[in-house]
Structure formats: structure tokens, C-alpha cells
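Page 37, continued from 36.
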């Protein structure tokens, strides 16, 4: 009578798993394959778009049996997970940084940068704030600059009330944080330290909506979703408040809402794109899924830019 070896037992288990249609693992047929799971993390600004895609894609023919898991640890946090091999796609509200590019190269990670939508980073106040309808970029800089002496609204402009300002804004792992500093403050790390930061825009929405004297900034979709709780502030790029522009789909798309209009990105790994589930999901993102962009509160790319993203994806899939 022959003895069963561990290899024989494994082969028998593999055969049983094959008969019942389960994937083969060294741990037997009780564990299911993760090959049909697309993993995404990164920007909380891009999160509503990717989450909407994740919910609708499995309803399509190409998405049957595919699970899409979306996190929102911030653009920087998302790239860290991306470089650690924990995700297939990184959501970003800014372009990848040179330091992140170098880390990807060192780890042998190749990716493709794809624009997917346009955001209008929105400055908001409490709806009961009846004095601040518009701010200049210079006033925003005065308020948010590191070492700022602005404590009360009266410190911003004559005529504003002597009421202490509560500041809420993006955390340092957020692409929104980087973008706000770049276009408003102009120098890395040059932001006041006595504000409430978060990479989760819902936390910022809650903060501003509960404080009459608050001000905050985050992605346009979170303002659109919470219009009853917030008031968007018009922004003037120069000193003329009469030229201040409110964030809307039209002003964001046209570029009139400046300097706070910005592109949003996804970064799929090229090796992940070799999997049918990931490739099909990203194709959906740039094609049929585009109908979801405006439904979650963002602005669709112009056709020329969307076609460029599709060409980039096609080149990466070859």
C-alpha cells in the first residue's frame, strides 16, 4: 500500500477545487482568488468619481464578477500604497511628484498618467456668514500664510466682524493641500499650523458647517453635495472683487475660475493593466463611465483631453 505524499494530497486538492470551479491555492480551496479585485486608493477628491465607477462597472458585461475596492488615504498616502504594491490604481488630485517618480523607478514600477476630470477647488464658509461673499487671492494668502496674524474676520478686511476664524483645510497627505499651497501660498510648507487638517473632505465639510465663523477648502464635489450646509466664496485672481468668480461647472471648464481649477488623475500600474479586469475597468473609466463625472459633482474633460487620455491608455495596453 503506497503512502500519500504532501504533493499527492495537494494535487488531489487541486483536482477537487477544479471540479467545483474554485481557484487553486497552496492553502486549499477555501480561499478565493483576488485576481478579480481591482484595488484603488489615494485622493479623497477623486474618491467620489472612483467610487461611482466601482459601483457601476460590475453591472456591465466586462465588469461581471469584478470587485473594485476604493480607499481615500490622500494623494500622497495613495502613492505610498501604490509603491508598496498594495494597489493597482492611484487616485491623485495633482500630478505625481518628482520624488515619487524616482521611488517608482527604484522599485521598477511603471504606470500611465491619465487625466479623468476637472475640479474647482472650493473655498467655503458657513451659510450664516453674510459678510464674506468674495475674497481675493491676496486675502486668501494673508489668511492662510504661515505666521499669519489673521485671527479674526476683521483682520482680513475692514468691515468684517471681530469674530474669531475657525480654519479647516486639507491635510499634508492630500493633493488638495499641495495644490492650494502652490497656487495660493507659493511655497512648500508655507501654510499656517493652527488649522484643523484632514485628508477626508467629509470631516472638513462637517467642521465648516458647524462653525458660523469657519472657513475651509476642498474639492468641488463635496461642496455640490452639501450646498445646503455651506456657502461657496467667489475668488478674484487680482485685487478687483467685482471680477470674483464663483465655482460652477461652466467657470471651472472655461478656466474663468482661476487659479483654483485643476485636473484630476488616475495612475494605473502597467503590470496591473495586463490583467483583464484592471484593463476593462480603466477603459470603462475613460469611456462609458464618463457619464458619472458630472453626477458626482465634477466637470468632464474637453473631448480633446479625454481622447488624449484614451490614446495613452491604448499605448500602455500594447
Amino acid at each position: 500500500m503506497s503512502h500519500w505524499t504532501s504533493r499527492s494530497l495537494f494535487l488531489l486538492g487541486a483536482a477537487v477545487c477544479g471540479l467545483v470551479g474554485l481557484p487553486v491555492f497552496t492553502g486549499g480551496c477555501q480561499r478565493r482568488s483576488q485576481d478579480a479585485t481591482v484595488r484603488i486608493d489615494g485622493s479623497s477628491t477623486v474618491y467620489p468619481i472612483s467610487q461611482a465607477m466601482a459601483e457601476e462597472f460590475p453591472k456591465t458585461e466586462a465588469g461581471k464578477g469584478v470587485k473594485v475596492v476604493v480607499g481615500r488615504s490622500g494623494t500622497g498616502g495613495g502613492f505610498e500604497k501604490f509603491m508598496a504594491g498594495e494597489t493597482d490604481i492611484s487616485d491623485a488630485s495633482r500630478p505625481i511628484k518628482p520624488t515619487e517618480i524616482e521611488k517608482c523607478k527604484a522599485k521598477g514600477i511603471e504606470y500611465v498618467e491619465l487625466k479623468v476630470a476637472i475640479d474647482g477647488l472650493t473655498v467655503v464658509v458657513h451659510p450664516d456668514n453674510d459678510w464674506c461673499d468674495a475674497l481675493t487671492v491676496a486675502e486668501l494668502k494673508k489668511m492662510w500664510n504661515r505666521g499669519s496674524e489673521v485671527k479674526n474676520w476683521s483682520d482680513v478686511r475692514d468691515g468684517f466682524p471681530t469674530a474669531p476664524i475657525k480654519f479647516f483645510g486639507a491635510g499634508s497627505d492630500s493633493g488638495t493641500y499641495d495644490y492650494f499651497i502652490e497656487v495660493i501660498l507659493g511655497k512648500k510648507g508655507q501654510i499656517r499650523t493652527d488649522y484643523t487638517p484632514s485628508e477626508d473632505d467629509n470631516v472638513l465639510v462637517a467642521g465648516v458647517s458647524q462653525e458660523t465663523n469657519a472657513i475651509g477648502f476642498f474639492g468641488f464635489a463635496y461642496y455640490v453635495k452639501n450646498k445646503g450646509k455651506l456657502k461657496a466664496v467667489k475668488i478674484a485672481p487680482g485685487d478687483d472683487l467685482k471680477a470674483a468668480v464663483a465655482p460652477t461647472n461652466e467657470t471651472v471648464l472655461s478656466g474663468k475660475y482661476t487659479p483654483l481649477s485643476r485636473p484630476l488623475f488616475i495612475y494605473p500600474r502597467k503590470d496591473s493593466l495586463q490583467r483583464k479586469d484592471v484593463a476593462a475597468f480603466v477603459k470603462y473609466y475613460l469611456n462609458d463611465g464618463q457619464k458619472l463625472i458630472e453626477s458626482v459633482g465634477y466637470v468632464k474633460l474637453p473631448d480633446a483631453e479625454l481622447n488624449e487620455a484614451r490614446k495613452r491608455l491604448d499605448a500602455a495596453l500594447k
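The radius of gyration is 23 Å. Flag for discussion at group meeting. The chain has eleven helices and twelve strands.
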